[in-house]
Amino acid sequence: MWGSTAILLVTVVSISAFDFQQGHFTNLEQRLNDPSWSLGFSNLVGVGANNSCSAIFSCADCNTAKVCRPSTNGSLSIVKAIPCPSTAPYCQYSTGTCGTVPDDSCGHVDNFICLADGRFPDANCSAYHVCDGLTPHKFECKIKGQTYNADNQRCEASNTCSTFNCDGTGKKVANSIYPSYFAYCTNNTQLPLVIDRCTGINQLNSTSQLCEPICTEEGVLQDIEDCTKYYKCSYLWIDDTTKFMTRQRLDCPTNTGFDPSNFICVSLTQIPTCKASAPKMKVQELLKL
């Protein structure tokens, strides 16, 4: 009796673990977790070429389903590619099964280059891309009057349209509304080669061509590269009509770190992930307004 019970318990645990993995990898809508698509505000209109496995049940192309299996390290390997039959010729990207109606994305390839997983605005403000496993999925807002809000990461009603104004070759250009996103331009008249995002609060500095904290008003900013430092933004008046915005990189006092929620330096005991670093020279920059 005890032997049977032990076997039963092991079987239940094994099935639960497989169900967890299966649920994690199976449904494209759940995996992408895109709010606009889930709410019916956007359509999936293109999927990037993908020869690898990103789900247990997925599509190799518009007319071919594929089944993959998980490994103990969380990766997936292909088991079999299944051509869809003539009675159900289209593979459904949301389920990895064959059906009679083609997906909106069927026949359209998303050529967006994923540099990281996440959501990225397109050069067309009504479109955006979701990168999952470095495979791009292109969506278009389908409700008239809505565009993609990169800050809120969803389609929303808006009177403005963001874009990347490529005005040079071999340069980075910030998004016209969401400056933490930037494009690398290869030609004045062509679409951006790639679109990327600065980390944290940083934005693209068009002059230095680097992602940096940008001072827009007086105050302090987090230094995302060193938790024991921060930036101070303040005006420097040259005369009655000319002023510069200055940005100073400053050290928090010994054994303290910067708290970005309250904009002050607090004890390192309140920031367990922050470790003290060696002192560095203070840097001051002038930005003419």
From TrEMBL:
Alphabetized InterPro entries for the sequence: Chitin-bd_dom, Chitin-bd_dom_sf
Single GO molecular function: chitin binding
Pfam families (UniProt xref): CBM_14
GO cellular component: extracellular region
PROSITE patterns per the UniProt record, alphabetical: CHIT_BIND_II
Protein name, as recorded: Uncharacterized protein
The species this protein was found in: Apolygus lucorum
